[in-house]
Design goal:
By secondary structure, this protein is mainly α. It has one domain: Arc Repressor Mutant, subunit A, CATH 1.10.10.10. Helices cover about 60% and strands about 10% of the residues. The chain contains six helices and three strands; from the N terminus they run ααβααββαα. A three-stranded antiparallel beta sheet has the order 1-3-2. A hairpin with a 7-residue loop joins strand 2 and strand 3. Helix 2 crosses helix 5. The radius of gyration is 18 Å and the shape is globular.
């Protein structure tokens, strides 16, 4: 239940509130995660790329754009940042001579291990207001929402 003076209390109770609620939730999570990652010298956008490289192995920038929901110029900046820090490298793609694949370095894997631990801690803090069954349900519902076709 929303407190009378909470930001989401003015959003009403109908389906139209989904957008504003998701935006408020995203802002809270991003702010908390950004603060927690600051000591590592990376941001959420860097974490997202490292997460996908760790999960899928070397990927083209186009694949990273699709997986992270980023745009081309932002992805170029993010990969440039990771390369400058020695966390990732661009190499010619074995699958497409015209493209480059972004690959995590050993230093990137070590930093990502720390970032993933921080991510787990932040996620636990953010979800601490919910019972464990509700935490699981929220994640399941968000995964279903994100995977739904079309908009």
């Amino acid at each position: 239940m929303n407190a009378p003076d909470s930001p989401s209390s003015a959003l009403g109770t109908g389906p139209a509130r989904i957008g504003p609620l998701l935006r408020l939730a995203q802002r809270r999570a991003a702010r908390t995660f950004t603060e927690a990652l600051r000591p590592l010298g990376i941001e959420g956008r860097h974490y997202g790329v490292l997460l996908n490289l760790g999960k899928h192995g070397p990927l083209s920038q186009r694949q990273l754009i699709d997986l992270t929901g980023s745009d081309k110029s932002a992805m170029v900046r993010t990969v440039d940042d990771l390369e400058a820090r020695g966390l990732a490298v661009r190499r010619p793609s074995p699958a497409d001579r015209r493209a480059y694949a972004v690959e995590m370095t050993d230093e990137g894997r070590a930093l990502f291990a720390d970032a993933a631990r921080i991510g787990d801690e932040v996620g636990a803090r953010l979800l601490a207001c919910l019972e464990s069954d509700d935490q699981r349900l929220l994640c399941v519902l968000l995964e279903r929402f994100v995977a739904a076709p079309g908009d």
